[in-house]
TrEMBL record:
GO cellular component, one term: plasma membrane
A Pfam family reported for this protein in Swiss-Prot or TrEMBL: 7tm_6
Matches recorded under InterPro entries: 7tm6_olfct_rcpt
UniProt-recorded Gene Ontology molecular function terms: odorant binding; olfactory receptor activity
Localization terms from the record: Cell membrane
Family: Belongs to the insect chemoreceptor superfamily. Heteromeric odorant receptor channel (TC 1.A.69) family.
Membrane topology according to the record: Multi-pass membrane protein
Chain ranges passing through the membrane: 55-75, 87-107, 150-173, 322-343
Keyword vocabulary terms for this entry: Cell membrane, Membrane, Olfaction, Receptor, Sensory transduction, Transducer, Transmembrane, Transmembrane helix
GO biological process: signal transduction
Coiled-coil residues: none
Protein name: Odorant receptor
């Protein structure tokens, strides 16, 4: 029964989007929930969102401070494994603070996107069944990706917390007084003058680390969902424009008299005006203004971070120890690098198909006043996505492959070097 309800929820079997107006906030409930939680909507903020954002911010600042202390201590004692782990936490938390800052600085862009998303749903509900079916098939796939993202981040956060609790229980079950061992802390904690092996410092650190994990994954859920929905919303608009261009000359026949010629010309002009209006609302520039800095930051740090996480995990395995947290961090870093690269490649493909649609129609029957607009649309679609900066590569699967190759080369070099961990 529970599995059946989950399938109905996941496939939206209880949601009728075949007729009438469909509210995007009801359709993408998980997305709208995290947008409300991070206060990036144009509606009045609910009281609980202030509590949620304050806890997230306090946890971020607190854990970042401790990670910086631990990173300094790791460099001081030159523990390569600890340097890698603490350094990764510092970068992750800097990324988190960056995203929290962006939600404030780029709030108008978020609100503009929410408004355009609502306009797109309203527009498609006025179109024929053919357009509606394609649009909502894409939206359903977006919904499934959002649910899968929430489920993955929920499992990741809880697995880390359960691993920390399980490690403590295992220690308490096997520990004997006087054996010289200390209660385990899954995450590195160090501060001058504080002994984290004794109470109450250990208890505070243990609980704060688990709360910090939940707050961090909560923040990454917001970032990943927003990225997924934003890119796929632009892609779904590109699909609609492609279909409109394909149907631009539908029903247009050679005119037999001046009246038919004027009628066909007015019909083509009306359809072309609709295409251009939708093409100007592609939201590519808004997406770039919000995510460009985050994507460039990921490009900058991804190769060394993945390399060091893989290297330290391999060294621990050689020593007969499985460092579960470091392996999870390595997998998470690869996924966080892969997802925007895949989404931007997917978006590039959808935008390029608009250009192909312009080429494939009978443009010689469109009249001389329409052809310049088709050329402008084609030229605009062939431009690179506005996600570039000097010294950085275009965000794409090719970039992901390049970064992973660099990480693997560094990994091989370090494995052959004589470093004592």
């Amino acid at each position: 029964m529970l599995l059946k309800k989950w399938k109905e929820f996941y496939n939206k079997e209880d949601f009728d989007y075949s007729t009438g107006y469909v509210d995007p906030y009801q359709f993408h409930r998980t997305f709208y929930f995290v947008q409300s939680a991070f206060q990036v909507t144009d509606e009045p903020f609910k009281p609980w969102t202030y509590v949620s954002k304050t806890i997230t911010l306090i946890c971020g600042i607190g854990v970042l401070t401790d990670a910086c202390f631990s990173f300094y201590h790791a460099i001081d004692i030159f523990d390569m494994g600890l340097i890698t782990e603490a350094g990764t936490y510092v970068l992750m938390l800097l990324y988190k603070m960056m995203t929290l800052t962006i939600t404030k600085v780029n709030l108008p862009s978020y609100i503009h996107f929410m408004k355009c998303m609502k306009d797109d749903f309203g527009y498609i509900c006025t179109k024929s069944e053919k357009y509606r079916k394609v649009f909502f098939e894409t939206q359903l796939a977006t919904w499934k990706l959002c649910v899968s993202t929430c489920l993955f981040m929920f499992c990741l956060a809880n697995s880390l917390v359960l691993f920390a609790i399980g490690s403590l229980f295992f220690y308490l079950a096997t520990h004997e007084p006087g054996d010289g061992t200390n209660r385990p802390l899954v995450f590195p904690f160090w501060a001058p003058g504080i002994d984290y092996t004794s109470s109450p410092a250990y208890d505070i650190a243990f609980n704060f680390a688990n709360i910090g994990v939940l707050a961090c994954t909560y923040n990454y859920t917001f970032v990943l969902q927003t990225n997924i929905v934003w890119v796929r919303q632009i892609a779904s608009k590109a699909e609609m424009i492609e279909m409109c261009i394909t149907d631009l000359l539908e029903g247009i026949q050679p005119a037999n008299n001046e009246e038919e010629k004027r009628h066909y010309a007015n019909l083509i002009n009306y359809r072309m005006r609709e295409i251009i209006s939708q093409h100007q609302k592609m939201l590519l520039d808004s997406y770039a203004s919000v995510f460009k800095k985050c994507l460039m930051f990921e490009q900058l740090v991804s190769s060394p971070v993945i390399c060091m996480l893989a290297y330290c995990s391999a060294e621990k395995l050689d020593a007969g120890e499985i460092h579960t947290v470091m392996i999870l961090l390595c997998v998470g870093a690869i996924l966080i690098l892969f997802l925007p690269c895949y989404l931007c490649t997917y978006l590039r493909m959808k935008v390029t198909r608009i250009c192909d649609a312009c080429w494939e129609i009978r443009f010689w029957d469109a009249g001389p006043n329409i052809r310049p607009y088709l050329i402008l649309i084609m030229q605009r679609c062939l431009r690179p996505l506005p996600l570039q900066a000097p010294g950085f590569q275009e965000v794409s699967i090719k970039t992901f492959s390049s970064k992973m190759t660099s990480a693997y080369s560094l990994f091989n070099m370090l494995r052959q070097a004589d470093l004592d961990l």
